[in-house]
Amino acid sequence: MFYQRMCKEFEEDYNIKPEDNISYEYFTTIWAEHLPEFKIPKTSEFVECSICAQLKEDRNRAKTKQEKEIISELLKKHFVQVETERKVYHATREQARFEPDEIMCIIQDGMDQKKTAIPRLVNEDKMTSLLARIRLHITGNIIHTNVPGGKIIPAYVDLLNYPHDSNLSMHLLLQTLFDNRARLSRCLFTQLDNCYRENKNRYMLSLAHVLVQYKVFDMVDLHFLPVGHTHEDIDQLFSCISRHLKKTNIYTMDDMERAVMNSYNVPVFVKHVEGVFDIKKWLLPHMVKNFKGQSKPLHFQFKEFDGKVRMRYRHRSTSNWRPVLQFKDDDFTPIEESKG
Ligand SMILES: [Zn+2]
User: Domain locations in the chain?
Assistant: First the structure.
């Protein structure tokens, strides 16, 4: 595709005859030799929701007007469901601002690292575009609480020297809780990226269990948005950071830190990740037994019941909690696949 576009541009802009363009083989050889750092991503950076993708494909293939209408109706219903899940988060963040002693609401996500490599210059020239870049990654947390602006925003910068897995997510969540320990409320509500590798796994669920067991919180909720519909206020923050970076010359880590701090209407507190605790190892004695099927539910809740920490879950915010009537005797109720 790039080769075809290049040939077309040469023909249109420079009147090069098609037969005078270099061959595709020569084009790929030059690319491999001189521009090995330029890679075309195999997939889009945004994961599309499988339900949306399937319904849109079905609608395109539909032969009759009636078929198209039925599929459009299904799509509409799906969007209503997604919106209902968003409202769970929006209602909780409002509650956290009005009742900060009752609930602490935190959203966590990572910024696209292609936008934060340094040096980063407003006007690139041939020389600067060839400079080696240091890649870094920003994880943002927004704590919704009763402060001017309604939020506290810590952002953690790492040089991709730690695996981006649940250890890093849990470490940064605990770091945020520790740094804001004077603000801990009765309940914690987390809005995490719906990603198995980092968040939606038995380690994160076990951490929620431990936070209740050790009485840090009376109740912990882990809430996820449907995959492909996870764009939230944290992404708006990243867009603001990204826009601000485009207007700023960034040569050093300090420049980056300053730019990120001043990129949003609420100050962003930047911290460097100096190390990551092996929280997965700490959690091993607390690990969930017989645990499976956590990929489907969007909402998990942990609280003490009858002297023990229990978990319940629901597939969507409109589904019933399971177990429905009471928590079972097991430390954790094994989740049965796909009944929602
Ligand atoms: Zn969808």
Answer: 2-34, 50-79, 86-314
**Distance from the alpha carbon of residue 48 to the mean position of ligand 1, in angstroms:** 7
Separation of 81 CA from ligand 1 center, angstroms? 9
Q: Which residue has the tokens 């900060």?
A: 100
Structure tokens at 300: 């998990």
Predicted TM-score of the model (pTM) = 0.79
**Is 279 a residue whose pLDDT tops 90?**
yes
Q: How many residues does the structure list for the chain?
A: 340
Write the pLDDT tens digit of every residue in 267-278: 999 999 999 999
Q: Which CATH architecture has domain 86-314?
A: 2-Layer Sandwich (3.30)
- CA quadruple 16, 17, 20, 22: dihedral positive or negative? positive
Confidence (pLDDT) at 125: 83
- The SS3 call for residue 260 is helix
The end-to-end CA distance of the chain, in Å, is 43
